[in-house]
Amino acid sequence: MKDSIVILAGGGPAPGINTxxxxxxxxxxxxxxxxxxxxDGYKNLFRPEKxxxxxxxxxxxxxxxxxxxALRMSRYKPKNEEFNPDFFVQNNIKLLxxxxxxxxxxxxxxxxxxxxxxxxxxxxxxVPKTIDNDLPLPDGNPTFGYYSxxxxxxxxxxxxxxxxxxxxxxxxxxxxxxxxxxxxxxMTSACHCPMVIIPEMFNKxxxxxxxxxxxxxxxIVKRKLLGVNYGVIIISEGVFHFMTDEEIEKxxxxxxxxxxxxxxxxxxxxxxxxxLLLQQRLKLLGLNVKSRPVEIGYGIRCVQPNGYxxxxxxxxxxxxxxxFLQGVTGAMVTTNPxxxxxxxxxxxxxxxxxxxxPRLVNLNGPKAELIFNEGLQYLKPEDYEAAKHYLxxxxxxxxxxxxxx
Length: 405
Prior knowledge:
Number of domains: 2
Number of helices: 13
CATH architecture of the largest domain: 3-Layer(aba) Sandwich
CATH topology of the largest domain: Rossmann fold
Oligomer: single chain
CATH class of the largest domain: Alpha Beta
Order of helices and strands: EHEEHHEHEHEHEHEHHEHEEHHH
Number of strands: 11
């Protein structure tokens, strides 16, 4: 039997997955390898029944520029006791290529340890994918898919911002980003939105719904002082992941609950929750301000990759082959602006539980400093006197006091 490789994609879609699959497949096919595409991520990797496509060059060539993933994806995380080498041995697999974000990378890390500890001679190379941009890549390199998703999101935000100006309304946008606020922050900086709220901002203060609402009101009133009665606020959905269940339930939304008794946030619009709470506060303050919710997430995950990601994903795909020939395993493939391929070993970026540590927005970096100090509009102590026209206690809406900065 020919030497074979298998490719799978885990987590959610991101622009460029098909470019990676295509590049890896064509690169190995031209050298005589058999290339298998496994559907449903890790879900069936260690089970007897699975759906596997044998990838040929024509099929790989056809999907290269497409959005989405030609291989069905899954968020399934196999338990350690499920691991076995049967599929690898039966198909003469020499390389497992995993494509995904932090969860997929964390599982790849566990599989690599299993293969090593059990002397199974199979290499495992991970390709870092996520529109959240939260994998700890060197030199600030993005995860693939981030720039394509951000481009699509920026187009939507620009349209919504123009609607706000045209109609004299405010829009509350919720942006995807499970633990980090890169996408929301990137959209804000590109579109000059007057307020962004991301988990990283709460490095000194507790994440509460009240604090989020106060930040929104701070921006609305500051803009009123500037003579502007419209605007766009972007909030990363990740703020919910740092709240207690009790705090989330304060929103008053009728949640469904998972088997562990936690509110199922995926079943509700976060933008709706934020906007509802904002409207309740505005009415309480007697401020006649209209606002509308907009959710940005699923609509940008499967767009076609832009020029940046088409090139970037191709380099990562070629890099998989290069690292494989070097004997590298248990690593993410990375590339720098020169096009050099550098392995980032998963064991070097894991926490004490073996999970890959997320990369957060660097609040102390020069970009964040400029955006938060100069790009946003919010109340400061020098605004208190003028703000009393709208607020009984303006200091409660002071941006830096809310965050304890």
